[in-house]
């Protein structure tokens, strides 16, 4: 009797596939948005483009990096991770479509800020994060997953930061910068918590696959000190003028972040880009707080140096590190990077380094340094987008949902 070969047919096809799992639309949208918005900002800053005029170009750029790029990446991560934490079904279909639409609506509002009343832009842009919080809370609270309640607070702080940003455009309060920093620090708190979990875990498992058996761990007391010191340093920076206190607290946070990496076997990861990029992202985190300490304690660095280290360095690297790995794993593919991806990782870090250190050390005009850093950083994300477009838009090879 002739046996028939069973072929797994994809459960989702076409447009429905993009709403089958949160990482698909949000990783794709945020990767493309990151590259495009940074190139536009480069044109605004270095070439005299006048878009937009209703909002300060610097504030617009900061907003779109924090509440556009970082918020979308955070959504992609949480909508993928929370079901694993809680055992609940992933948000998909119409509910995911609502979140995607709200994120896009915010981008439309901010990109057409010259043409739309400020109150309408605020409504369009503010809606996304509370909606994300509702969907995430339904799963975390429903499962009594108390360990991860903290992420609901992070989303809440993030949403408050966006409200404070728009309050200034509505002439209610002069809080745009405070809102931007609150939003950024909410993201950094999430990166701090998540990196403490995934970097040692992924490092240990990845090295074992390569036949490298080393102890990869974090001292629990150091971990608690790290999270607490980072939180205190960020709260102090929001509440106080930059000076000795904020500088000292940032130094303590940098020390704890460095100590946390002590037993992470970083030296064994250099031959494995999908692992070392996670360590690179965490090194950016250490460096950012160290730069903040130097700036506040000595005045030798511009205060924005640490902020750009957090955005272009920490967020830029960690989003790419986690997104490139998660997209492979959650589409049923081997954790093997395409050949261009290590170059994408390096371009983002080189672009970040030029943005952070270039104005002080390179013999070029400031605008030229900004332009070069933006183009190099965006090139990394363009490579990421080209490589992962088919991965994020095609069904899993095994035909399983997601």
Molecular structure report:
The chain has 402 residues and is mainly alpha-helical. It has one domain (15-393): Up-down Bundle (Cytochrome C Oxidase, Chain A), CATH 1.20.210.10. Helix content is 73%, strand content 0%. The chain has 14 helices and no strands. It has helices at 15-18, 23-47, 57-86, 93-111, 118-126, 128-142, 150-169, 176-209, 220-239, 244-260, 273-298, 304-329, 341-361, 366-393. The radius of gyration is 21 Å and the shape is globular. Residues 1-10 have low confidence and may be disordered.
State the separation between the terminal residues, measured CA to CA.
Answer: 35 Å
Stated plainly, the CATH topology is called: Cytochrome C Oxidase, Chain A
Q: What would you call the shape?
A: globular
> In percent terms, what proportion of residues is strand?
under 5%
CATH superfamily: Cytochrome c oxidase-like, subunit I domain
Sketch the major β-sheet: none
Order of helices and strands: HHHHHHHHHHHHHH
Going by helix content, strand content and strand pairing, the class is mainly alpha
Percent of residues in helices comes to over 70%
Top CATH class: Mainly Alpha
Q: What's the overall average pLDDT, rounded?
A: 92
User: Architecture, according to CATH?
Assistant: Up-down Bundle
Q: Give Rg in angstroms.
A: 21 Å
């Amino acid at each position: 009797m002739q046996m028939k070969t069973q072929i797994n047919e994809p459960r989702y096809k076409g447009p429905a596939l993009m709403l089958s799992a949160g990482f698909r639309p949000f990783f794709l949208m945020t990767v493309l948005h990151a590259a495009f918005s940074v190139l536009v900002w480069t044109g605004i800053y270095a070439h005299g483009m006048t878009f937009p005029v209703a909002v300060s170009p610097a504030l617009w750029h900061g907003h779109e990096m924090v509440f556009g790029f970082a918020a979308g990446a955070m959504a992609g991560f949480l909508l993928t991770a929370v079901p694993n934490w809680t055992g609940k079904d992933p948000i998909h279909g119409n509910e995911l479509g609502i979140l995607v639409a709200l994120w896009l609506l915010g981008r439309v509002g901010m990109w057409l800020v010259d043409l739309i009343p400020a109150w309408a832009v605020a409504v369009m842009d503010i809606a996304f994060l509370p909606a994300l919080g509702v969907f995430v809370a339904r799963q975390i609270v429903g499962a009594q997953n108390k360990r991860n309640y903290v992420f609901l607070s992070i989303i809440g702080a993030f949403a408050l930061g966006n409200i404070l940003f728009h309050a200034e455009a509505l002439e209610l309060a002069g809080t745009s910068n405070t809102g931007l920093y609150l939003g950024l620090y909410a993201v950094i708190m999430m990166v701090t918590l998540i990196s403490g979990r995934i970097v040692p875990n992924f490092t240990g498992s990845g090295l074992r696959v390569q036949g490298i058996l080393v102890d990869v761990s974090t001292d629990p007391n150091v971990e608690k000190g790290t999270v607490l010191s980072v939180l205190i340093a960020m709260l102090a920076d929001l509440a106080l003028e930059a000076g000795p206190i904020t500088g000292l607290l940032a130094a303590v946070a940098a020390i704890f972040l460095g100590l946390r990496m002590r037993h992470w076997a970083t030296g064994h990861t250099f031959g494995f880009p999908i692992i070392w990029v996670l360590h690179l992202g965490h090194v950016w985190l250490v460096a950012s707080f160290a730069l903040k300490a130097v700036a506040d304690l000595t005045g030798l660095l511009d205060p924005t140096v640490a902020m750009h280290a957090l955005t272009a360095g920490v967020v830029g690297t960690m989003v790419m590190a986690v997104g490139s790995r998660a997209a492979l794993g959650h589409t049923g593919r081997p954790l093997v990077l395409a050949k261009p991806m290590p170059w994408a990782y390096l371009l983002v870090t080189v672009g970040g380094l030029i943005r952070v250190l270039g104005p002080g050390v390179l013999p070029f005009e400031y605008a030229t340094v900004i332009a070069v850093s933006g183009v190099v950083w965006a090139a990394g994300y363009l490579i990421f987008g080209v490589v992962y477009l088919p991965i994020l838009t095609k069904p899993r090879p095994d035909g399983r949902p997601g």
